[in-house]
Each structure stands twice: as structure tokens, then as C-alpha cells.
Amino acid sequence: MQTRLLRRALEILSRRIVLHHRFSERFSNAQLAVSPGASLRYWRSDLESLDPNILNAAEELVKPGDVVWDIGANVGLFALAAAAMAGPKGQVLAIEPDLWLVNLLRHSATYRNNRIAPLTILPLAISNDIRLEELKIAVRGRAGNFLGETGSSQTGGVRDTQTTLAVTLDWLLTICPAPNVIKIDVEGHEHCALEGAAKLLTVHHPLMHIEVSKRNSESVTGMLHAAGYSLFDADEAPKG
């Protein structure tokens, strides 16, 4: 019982701690607000060792002046790296339904750096229609949060539920500049995100970095091929 109470106390404390980590010159020394309450890996100060794949994607796909959409932004690792690549003439839109993570993103957006693109944060979910959705907050780290019943076995269960407004990517086009680059990481809901993106994919055809669950790989592959995309494994994608 004491061990369980101590673990619970440490979990509550970690949610209240905000750490300020800085990228290297590679990403214009941008600052990122993180918390071990999102994932214990954020105790580490070396941001660029946390997820090399996603940072390489930002570096390879985003060009100066680009508009970038980060769908499922979490703490903003990709969003801030993309902001550094896009530079002051670019724009980065971070979409994140978890209000606790949105607060961290807003911390990051307040850091002054005239070498990176401004960061706009919208507390929304992305789906195939405009409706209310139930966002499940994962026990093992908020990177595993999921909509509806789409979560993986790695979540460790559900600690909380938030009601959030879901919109479509095509609806976002009515209020936001079309993206040159879009990253999607929505924990098993990616097929629904793409179902609401017909105009985005076929008319604007942005470069994409998308995390796809095994159960959705066939349907997502079909939708992207139908929209004229060539697909590459992120670990093996060609440079340049």
C-alpha cells in the first residue's frame, strides 16, 4: 500500500514539473517546454536523442517559408523542429486535443526566437467528421492518448477521459493556410484523419510524415496511393 501511494504521489508531482530544454544550433536553439508527466523520457536534456526519426523528418521535409501542420503534436517535438526549419517566414500549426499538453505547447510558444516560425496551437482532435469525441488519457504516458477505442496495448490503461471537439483536415483548410508539410501521429486514428482529407490530399498534396498502426496499414496505403502518393518507410526514406 505504501509503495502504491508513493508511486501515485510521484506521478502527481511529475505532472506539475515543467522542464525547459533547448535544441542545438541544428534547430536554431529553439526551446521546448516538456514534462515527465507526459513521458519519463523527458527527464533527459538531450532533445535530439529522444526521437531521431521525427527530427530527421522535420529536417528533410520542411523548407524555409513552409506552412507545416503537426497533427497530434503532443509536447511539440516535431512542431518546434519544423518551426526551426521553416524559419521566420514560415508557419507551424500544432493540433493537440489533450488540454494538459496544450498548456505545455503554449509554454513553448512564448519563448522568443526570431529565427523560427511562429507556433499556432489549436486544442482540437482530427477525425472524419465534425463531432465530439472522447479522448482517453493513457496511463504510461500522454504520447499514447487515443480517441474512442483505437488505443494500443502499450497505453497501460486509461487514467482519465476528456471530451474534445474533432474536425476534419479539409475543414481546417477553410480557416488555415494549406500546408506544404503535414505530420500525423494520432494513435490508431490515422485512417479517420485521412478520410476527412480528400481535398487536402488531392488538391494540395502536401509532403507527409505519418505514423500508421499495423491494423490500419492497408486502408491508409490505399487512400494515399489513390491520392497519388509514393510511400516510403521512414527508416528507409530516400534523402533529398
Describe this structure in words.
The chain has 240 residues and is of the alpha/beta class. It has helices spanning 2-16, 52-61, 77-86, 99-109, 169-172, 190-195, 198-204, 217-226; strands spanning 19-22, 31-34, 67-71, 91-95, 119-122, 125-126, 131-138, 146-147, 158-167, 181-184, 207-210. The chain has a five-stranded parallel β-sheet. Strands 6-9-7-8 form a four-stranded mixed β-sheet. Helix 3 (77-86) links the parallel strand 3 and strand 4 (91-95). Helix 2 (52-61) runs parallel beside helix 3 (77-86). The model has no long low-confidence stretch (mean pLDDT 89).
| Structural classification | alpha/beta
Describe the oligomeric state of these chains in a short phrase.
single chain
| Arithmetic mean pLDDT | 89
Compressed to H and E, one letter per element, the order equals HEEHEHEHEEEEEHEHHEH
Topology at a glance:
Layout: H1 2-16, E1 19-22, E2 31-34, H2 52-61, E3 67-71, H3 77-86, E4 91-95, H4 99-109, E5 119-122, E6 125-126, E7 131-138, E8 146-147, E9 158-167, H5 169-172, E10 181-184, H6 190-195, H7 198-204, E11 207-210, H8 217-226
